């Protein structure tokens, strides 16, 4: 397949493009206030990790792609259910959707690659393989490129969980109705948070 033919192409070019993509995705997402743009630049940064993985192992690339799709699907579903389009929307949503906001916080932390969440092990495996290939400078630069992305993921977490607007209404019913999230949202969220112990099994089956 095409995925397994890519490692036969110019490895140096793929590594350079992957590094540039990871750096640009992280830095350009720093000052964004709309969640759609934030997730778009997050995708650009993760595409850089995928390009790096393509030069190393197709199996590792498949594992990284599947993990990224699960994490991103969870985050987008929660934002769609809570109708959060901007960072300001996130700050006013916690009172109505506390459980979904906790899941959003954990999903964004998983996208940032924090252990022991599922997003940690693809990046860890890629950095380990880069070290084995005697490319410590590339591994260090890729690890540092995650810091800007991690910053705006933490900003999403801070806005959604640790800030609350003043509530002055005395109405009996809240202005926003509660919704029951679909079952697949809970399933994807569980996979986003708990896939790390299954890393050896998943890596051996890809």
UniProtKB/TrEMBL annotation:
Keywords: Electron transport, Membrane, Mitochondrion, Mitochondrion inner membrane, NAD, Respiratory chain, Translocase, Transmembrane, Transmembrane helix, Transport, Ubiquinone. Its main location: mitochondrion. Pfam families: NADH_dehy_S2_C, Proton_antipo_M. It is a multi-pass membrane protein. It is found in: Mitochondrion inner membrane. GO terms for biological process: mitochondrial electron transport, NADH to ubiquinone. It catalyses: a ubiquinone + NADH + 5 H(+)(in) = a ubiquinol + NAD(+) + 4 H(+)(out). GO terms for cellular component: mitochondrial inner membrane. Residues 6-144 form the NADH:quinone oxidoreductase/Mrp antiporter transmembrane domain. Its EC number is 7.1.1.2. One of its GO terms (molecular function) is NADH dehydrogenase (ubiquinone) activity. InterPro entries: Complex_I_Subunit_2, NADH_DH_su2_C, NADH_UbQ_OxRdtase_chain2, ND/Mrp_TM. Residues 150-202 form the NADH dehydrogenase subunit 2 C-terminal domain. It is an enzyme of class 7 (translocase). The chain crosses the membrane at residues 6-26, 38-57, 63-82, 94-115, 135-154. Core subunit of the mitochondrial membrane respiratory chain NADH dehydrogenase (Complex I) which catalyzes electron transfer from NADH through the respiratory chain, using ubiquinone as an electron acceptor. Essential for the catalytic activity and assembly of complex I. Belongs to the complex I subunit 2 family. This is NADH-ubiquinone oxidoreductase chain 2.
